[in-house]
Design a protein that fits this description.
With 186 residues, the chain is of the alpha+beta class. The chain has helices spanning 2-25, 133-154, 157-175, and strands spanning 47-63, 71-86, 95-98, 101-106, 110-116, 122-127, 180-185.
């Protein structure tokens, strides 16, 4: 009986030491990622970005069903909206030069893009989402993007873009030697 006990103690010690050593020195998992990046399209851009608005949106999105408890997600969304002037639309007839004066008719300001900053946005809370969490969060982000785009359209971003265009372009044109500068928008 004592021999059996000694053998069991030795086996337990060997197994314990093996597990300890294996846990400490086991090979780390390797990771492999392959990429096939191709330039799909090169496009000439003439958009002069002149103003950026930073938006925050707190979104509570609920998914209500008859058979399951209501699932909800609470997100804090950060987004950027950029106003620009597309100088690619500027034509030769839009620029009139006479001696030391110049008149330029610039294209109207436009919203270049509205983009959610996913790195700064956070999922604050989820309730009863379980297997629906990814879909719920995706729906909330899409709803936030739609709402922020609507708010950007209601804002003064286009007016601010045109004001900034005047403040940016006037010193550049003065640097070219023109004394009288008239900048307008189509």
């Amino acid at each position: 009986m004592t021999k059996l006990l000694k053998v069991l103690v030795v086996l337990v010690l060997l197994i314990g030491i093996t597990v300890f050593v294996w846990d400490r020195f086991k090979p780390a998992p390797t990771k492999e990622t392959n990429h096939q990046v191709l330039v799909e399209k090169i496009e000439a851009m003439g958009k002069l970005e002149l103003v950026k608005y930073r938006y925050s949106d707190v979104v509570e999105h609920k998914n209500m069903t008859a058979y399951l408890p209501d699932a909800s997600v609470l997100l804090i969304i950060k987004a950027d909206a950029v106003g620009c002037i597309d100088l690619g639309k500027l034509k030769a007839e839009d620029v009139n030069v006479m001696d030391d004066s110049v008149q330029i008719t610039l294209p109207r300001a436009e919203i270049c893009y509205v983009k959610i900053d996913h790195k700064s946005s956070k999922v604050y809370d989820t309730k009863m989402a379980f297997f629906r969490e990814a879909t719920l969060v995706d729906e909330a982000f899409k709803a936030a993007e739609t709402e922020i785009t609507n708010q950007v359209k209601k804002s003064d971003i286009l007016k601010q873009t045109e004001n900034n265009a005047l403040h940016v372009l006037r010193p550049l044109i003065e640097g070219l030697g023109y004394k009288k500068i008239n900048l307008t928008f189509k």
